[in-house]
Amino acid sequence: MKSPATAPQNVDPAFAAWAAELQGLDPRSHAYQETLGALTLLAAENGVALSNGEAAKAQELPPGFVHREELAAPMVVPGAQFERTILPLRGQDHEVKVVELTSDQGRKVRVCDLRAQTDVSLKGATPKTQADQARVDSAFLRDLKGFADTRTARDTVEGIQGVCYSKVRGTKLRSYWLVVRPAGDQGDGVPLIARVGDCGNGTNYQQALYRRLFGMNMS
Amino acid sequence: MSHPRESSDPMGHKISSYAVLGRETNTADEWVGADVAVVVTDAGRFLLNILTREAYRNEVVQAATSELASLTPEMFAAEPDYRDSYVVNDLALTDDVLARELGGDVSPGLASALWHDGPLEG
């Protein structure tokens, strides 16, 4: 993914304009992230590789967030937390790497990824292409930003308390997640979100995911 | 983009049952959207996303603005099987609204929003 910086040659003049605009923005600002996102797309169209620093930044900070910090110590999420929700995660505690993100509204949220623990169960129901995975990831990050700022989720699974999902518009692609620690480990007001599984766009995928992730039939 | 219908074309067939899988609410905590599993007689199981008109409009606007910032080149590599949501004119969803929209035969408008998700199970 990362490649050395290359000098743009005979590329779209808009590229130079975007790059110049980026230089004048605060890297912590939302405008910087939006401009970097547009520059990344334009660079790809022109076959230009961004510098290591720029490419790394584009991957680390999701849109709408201005600060990212990986917590030094992992957290333990008890398996009991999933007793009535996520079938493959019950019965054992999970030590997780946690990332704390700060939104452009100054709100913090912590997030961990438990999909590695559910992937075997969900085999055959997850997104099949890199494009579909990118769409699901984007939807999750969109809703993560929304949750960080409002402490509410837009879409919730019916009949399973606390499980939320992120929807990719016009598709059956879904990313499932839940709040495992509403107020943070030390009561510091920072919730911990656990991402638990993604559903692909294929036939029968959602039925399969419902059975394997939630232990229930869809209807 | 064409969508293979096979013998699972639901148009004109009766909806025998449906179940809400997911619920979407707006900032005022009003019920404005839902993922629904639909069983259609002689056609199979389907999935549907239903939205109020305002929720649909907000979704389109969001997709056109803030989501552009998170687009990556690989998203353009292959377009997914896309179906528009089924949009209702009600301000909010209720059980009665769902019963009205999903309580009869499958209309052409509804059919275009349904994804076939498998055959009826015995």
What global shape of chain B is seen? Answer: globular
Which H/E pattern describes the elements of chain A? Answer: HHHEEEEEHHEEEEH
Strand tally of chain B: 5
Low-confidence parts of chain A: 1-11
Could you estimate the helical fraction of the residues of chain B in percent?
A: 10-25%
Question: How is the biggest beta sheet of chain A arranged?
Answer: 6 strands, mixed
Order of H and E elements of chain B? EEEHEHHE
The average pLDDT of chain B is 86
Distance between the termini of chain A: 42 Å
Radius of gyration of chain B: 16 Å
Assembly state of the chains shown: heterodimer
Q: What is the distance, rounded to the nearest whole angstrom, between the alpha carbons of the first and last residues of chain B?
A: 32 Å
Task: Specify the number of helices of chain B.
Answer: 3
Detail the poorly predicted runs of chain B. Answer: 1-6
The major sheet of chain B is characterized as: 5 strands, mixed
Radius of gyration of chain A: 19 Å
